[in-house]
């Protein structure tokens, strides 16, 4: 019997992870995918462009531009590093706006997706709490607005389980009334890598689908639906139990191989058996086949998520404040955040 692995595919919302998986499956770099990697001071930035539909199909990602900022040190709660990441994010985001042809004075609507009552899903609402909102000043007292600011509004529409309304319907109504030039949607994602949880920020110009972090299929926030450019910002805050188990096999194999290299009489295959001969997708399929019927393929987040989510939300909010308002700089940014 041949196991159908399609339903057991690795769950990830990150373009860099999709690229890693696709290259493993297809045996090398994919035509139609351009990648540029830059690393400095513990901050790794990957710029990934999916150029055609053929590459999109192999990657499982919509054609578009993706930027991934990876900073493993963010878990150390280093405030100086957080400031550097905010600046790096602002630089990349500003370049992203220029690439998309967004004018400096364009009106922006920030949408914080997620459930503020569930910590791993509260990223969007937390960012909304800390961004600099200015639209009401432009509406009520435009003559008193200093140069270097643009009209920015924000909304945390909640989740359908609380409001009974799709987030995209709420946003669509706001877009029709306020007519922003740009939408910035922020949501929690899922990752296949434990190291990337709460340490990675993805920016994409393809829009976003609420609930994507836990596999829910909802009406999206995209340019096609809303009529204006929609930039997605996401942070992986969860992964699946099957992903963790699968990663543990890799860690164990690496550990036993190192002991064997160091002269220890440990035979990896004797301990892990046939698991060493399975591909990652085959091994994940086996793990899910065991866990899913029992209802044990849980969605998991680190126990320190309360601290992590606050830190990463502040980094994104600070970065957006720097990128959207020329008058804001790192010295005065604390005046705008709570």
UniProtKB/TrEMBL annotation:
> Where would one find the signal peptide in this protein?
none
Pfam family name, one: Peptidase_A25
Q: In its UniProt entry, what is this protein called? A: Germination protease
User: Function, please?
Assistant: Initiates the rapid degradation of small, acid-soluble proteins during spore germination.
Native organism is Paenibacillus apis
GO BP annotation list: proteolysis; spore germination
The record's annotation in SUPFAM superfamilies points to: HybD-like (SSF53163)
Query: Corresponding gene?
Result: gpr
Residues that make up the propeptide removed upon maturation: 1-13
Q: What EC identifiers does the entry list?
A: 3.4.24.78
Q: Which UniProt keywords apply?
A: Hydrolase, Protease, Zymogen
Q: What is the lineage of its organism?
A: Bacteria, Bacillati, Bacillota, Bacilli, Bacillales
């Amino acid at each position: 019997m041949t196991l159908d692995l399609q339903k057991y595919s690795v769950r990830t919302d990150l373009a860099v992870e999709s690229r890693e998986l696709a290259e493993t499956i297809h045996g090398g770099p994919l035509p139609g995918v351009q990648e540029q990697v830059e690393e400095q001071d513990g901050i790794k930035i990957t710029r990934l462009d999916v150029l055609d539909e053929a590459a999109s199909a192999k990657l499982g990602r919509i054609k578009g531009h993706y930027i991934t900022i990876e900073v493993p040190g963010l878990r150390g709660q280093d405030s100086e590093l957080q400031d550097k990441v905010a600046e790096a994010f602002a630089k990349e985001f500003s370049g992203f706006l220029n690439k998309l042809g967004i004018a400096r004075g364009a009106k922006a609507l920030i949408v914080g997706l997620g459930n503020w009552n569930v910590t791993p899903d509260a990223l969007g609402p937390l960012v909304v709490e800390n961004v600099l909102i200015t639209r009401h000043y432009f509406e009520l007292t435009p003559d008193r607005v200093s140069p270097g600011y643009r009209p920015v509004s924000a909304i945390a529409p909640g989740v359908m389980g609380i409001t009974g309304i799709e987030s995209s319907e709420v946003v669509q109504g706001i877009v029709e009334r306020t007519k922003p030039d740009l939408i910035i949607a922020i949501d929690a994602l899922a990752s296949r890598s434990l190291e990337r949880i709460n340490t990675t920020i993805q920016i994409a110009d393809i829009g976003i689908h609420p609930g994507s972090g836990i596999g829910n299929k909802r009406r999206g926030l995209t340019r096609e639906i809303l009529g204006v450019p929609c930039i997605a910002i996401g942070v992986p805050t969860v992964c699946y139990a099957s992903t963790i188990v699968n990663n543990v096999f890799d860690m164990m194999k690496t550990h036993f191989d190192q002991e064997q290299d160091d002269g220890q009489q440990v035979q990896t295959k004797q301990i892990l058996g046939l698991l060493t001969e399975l591909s990652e997708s085959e091994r994940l399929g086996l793990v899910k086949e065991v866990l899913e019927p029992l209802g044990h393929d849980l969605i998991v987040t680190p126990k320190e998520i309360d601290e992590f989510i606050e830190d990463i939300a502040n980094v994104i909010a600070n970065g957006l404040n720097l990128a959207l308002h020329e008058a804001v700089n790192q010295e005065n940014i604390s005046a705008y955040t709570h």
